[in-house]
Structure formats: C-alpha cells, structure tokens
C-alpha cells in the first residue's frame, strides 16, 4: 500500500523583523553608545530582568522605523563578534557620511574613511564591544563596481565561496 504524504500549506503570517539582538560585555556602555551616538531611544519598560530582578538586557528603539534592538549581556558572544558587522544602517547621501565623520570625531569614536562600496558609499565605526557598525548611503548611487574599496580592518577579507 502506498501513501502520499503532502506538505502542509506554507504559514500565512510572516511580518518581518521583530527585533535585533546585540551581545554585549557591558549593557550600559553599549546602551549609551546607541542612544547617545546613534538615534535610538531607550525603552526601559521593556528591559529584561532575571528572576532576582537583575537586568540582563536593555531594549532601545529607532522611532522612525519602530525597529527594536535588544542589548543583551553575553560577553563571550560579544567578544566573538569583535570586528564583525552584523548590521548596516542606512543614511541618505554621501554628504551625510561626512556629517557622521564629524559627529563620530566629536565622540572620539574610531571610524573608517568614506569607502567605495559596490553601488554606494559606506562608513564604519566601532561600538563598545569592537563590533563594526556600518552606515551605507541609500539615496545616491555610483556606477556598480566589482572593485569596491578594500580595507581588511573595516570591511574584512573578501573570500570567494569555493562551493558556489
């Protein structure tokens, strides 16, 4: 006797990103970085606590997009992400990146120069855990290039996937 097992219908609800999570070795330092240097707003009513009421995560939001970011205490994971750039934030124009350079300099935050990306420009800086935070231009483009700037520190090494 043969039976045919059919796949269920794909779920109908998938609304996109609920929140991002950033591992941190110091919740307060990372929280201050994103709420003072970047335009995030603290949401203390949504902070997370252990059963004995000690904070293990703080929540911040980007009001323009309603994006939530959880800053979670996890020093081991934070250390493993040093030099990694898990999120690239959008800015309008190349001129905006020049303003960001002045702003980052005023906070004494280490950053790259403005770099040529594959279709626009990018600037990178470091958060308190050494994670690279990129700002990418979205309202202007240059001609597509397969020869973007190379900067192993800020952009990492480019490696082709041998299986691709």
TrEMBL record:
<feature type="domain" description="VOC">
    <location>
        <begin position="16"/>
        <end position="138"/>
    </location>
</feature>
<dbReference type="InterPro" id="IPR029068">
    <property type="entry name" value="Glyas_Bleomycin-R_OHBP_Dase"/>
</dbReference>
<dbReference type="Pfam" id="PF00903">
    <property type="entry name" value="Glyoxalase"/>
</dbReference>
<dbReference type="InterPro" id="IPR004360">
    <property type="entry name" value="Glyas_Fos-R_dOase_dom"/>
</dbReference>
<dbReference type="InterPro" id="IPR037523">
    <property type="entry name" value="VOC_core"/>
</dbReference>
<protein>
    <recommendedName>
        <fullName>VOC domain-containing protein</fullName>
    </recommendedName>
</protein>
């Amino acid at each position: 006797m043969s039976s045919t097992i059919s796949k269920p219908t794909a779920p109908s609800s998938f609304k996109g990103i609920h929140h991002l999570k950033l591992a941190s070795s110091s919740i307060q330092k990372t929280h201050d970085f994103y709420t003072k240097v970047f335009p995030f707003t603290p949401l203390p009513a949504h902070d997370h606590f252990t059963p004995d009421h000690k904070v293990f995560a703080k929540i911040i939001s980007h009001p323009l997009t309603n994006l939530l970011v959880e800053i979670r205490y996890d020093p081991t994971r934070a250390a493993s992400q040093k030099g990694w750039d898990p999120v690239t934030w959008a800015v309008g124009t190349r001129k905006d990146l020049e303003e960001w350079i002045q702003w980052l300099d005023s906070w004494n935050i280490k950053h790259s120069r403005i770099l040529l990306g594959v279709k626009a420009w990018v600037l990178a800086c470091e958060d308190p855990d050494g994670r690279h935070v990129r700002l990418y231009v979205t309202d202007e483009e240059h001609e597509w290039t397969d020869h973007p700037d190379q900067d192993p520190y800020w952009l990492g090494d480019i490696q082709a996937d041998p299986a691709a």
